[in-house]
Write a structure and sequence with these properties.
7 helices, 7 strands, about 15% strand
Amino acid sequence: MIIDYNTINNLNIMNITDIFLEEFIKESGKEHYKLLSYLSTQYNNSIIIDIGTHKGYSALALSSNKTNTIHTFDIIDKINEKNKLWQNNNVYFHNDDLMDNNIRNKWETTILNSSMIFLDIDPHDGKLEYEFYNWLKDNNYKGILICDDILYFKGMRDNFWYRIPSDHKIDVTHLGHWSGTGIIRFHPTPL
């Protein structure tokens, strides 16, 4: 997969929704929505997982390719009613905590069959992220894991990002979010 700054930065993702989202017009390196939209178009008829829905913007960006099915998870429903208008397309919201092993087991097949996972959860201390990374690795996950906030928080750097082998990850902050965006691969194909 070749990731090009100009292609991503010039991407118009405002056509995903009728709702104006200022975050969707910000350039790469400030916001990660154009990167997420671009990456979603690299897969067809795939499952994409979004963990940490928050307001739903990442799920919406990931829904750019309508052939894909997006499952977005959060422990609190913070999506306002206006943003729920797009949810009936190819995005499905689940009020579940995938960091809880019992709940994760319920979704195991869906998670492991996904092509891509976007992970952006609180409290950004890196511990849950690293545990989830190891769970994916132990279960022979074959997709990619995109992680937000890998550089801004000390816990994310020390407890998570710096612990991932360098030949399995790439820092794409210049294409993603100012707080740090990284991609981890679980298969032999180079990034």
